[in-house]
Amino acid sequence: DAGVTQSPTHLIKTRGQHVTLRCSPISGHKSVSWYQQVLGQGPQFIFQYYEKEERGRGNFPDRFSARQFPNYSSELNVNALLLGDSALYLCASSTGTGGAGETQYFGPGTRLLVL
Amino acid sequence: KQEVTQIPAALSVPEGENLVLNCSFTDSAIYNLQWFRQDPGKGLTSLLLIQSSQREQTSGRLNASLDKSSGRSTLYIAASQPGDSATYLCAVTPGTYKYIFGTGTRLKVLA
Fold it and tell me: What are the strands, taking DSSP E only, across A19-103?
């Protein structure tokens, strides 16, 4: 079975632009989470979606938004890009919303560079 | 607020050495603790998951332990190999839906 896939793999944008990142979960997984990983740091939680509804949100500004589609794929949108948005954006999928013994499976990430 | 700390930040060892990576967390109210491996510029690969009711998990040359009351976990790697070179991340699940990660330990195993 295919793992979590993300597109694009790399992206270069300029300050003030908008970006859309895409994620396809493992077949049968209904939950998608997004994380931001700045160079040298651990991933930081941005959003989780389950069954097309937002179930959790991290400490990120309103410039960050996401949605989940009926096929459980997801998009992360970032408006008015700042230099500090440069990071590896990771998508993870899981069967449920998380609990004892449940793991999330991570995709390869999208590397975003904001100039 | 849950905080996760990993020590050391970087480690360089000769091949064949046994080594221990440390992870500490401030709030013992967790569902799971999980260790991940990350190769440069890549996504995360799950190594071991320990539920809050468990004390340890083993997979091959890897063994992870959890002491929830003291807020500590260790990842033991036996007979290290150059292919083990990567960043190792510890994460806790404080409730549902999200991980809280440490900043990682960058491991280099020298041939």
Answer: 19-24, 31-37, 44-50, 53-57, 64-68, 74-78, 87-94
Rg (CA), chain B: 13
Is A100 within 8 Å of B52 when comparing Cβ atoms? yes
Among B32, B98, B103, the residue with its CB nearest the CB of A45 is B98
pLDDT at A99: 67
Residue B70: other Cβ atoms inside 10 A: 10
Confidence class of residue A105 from pLDDT cuts 50, 70 and 90?
very high
Mutate one of A5, A24, A37 to test the B interface: name it (highest B CB count within 10 A): A37
Percent of chain A at pLDDT above 70? 96
Assess whether pLDDT exceeds 90 at residue A92: yes
Mutation target vs A (from B97, B101, B106; most A CBs, 10 A cutoff) = B97
> For residues B73 and B33, is the Cβ–Cβ distance under 8 A?
yes
- Distance of alpha carbon B44 from alpha carbon A90, whole angstroms: 9
> For the sheet containing B4-7, what is the strand order?
B4-7, B19-25, B72-77, B62-67, B56-59
DSSP state of A96: S
- Of the candidates B49, B89, B95, the beta carbon closest to that of A42 is on B89
CA distance B33 to B52: 7
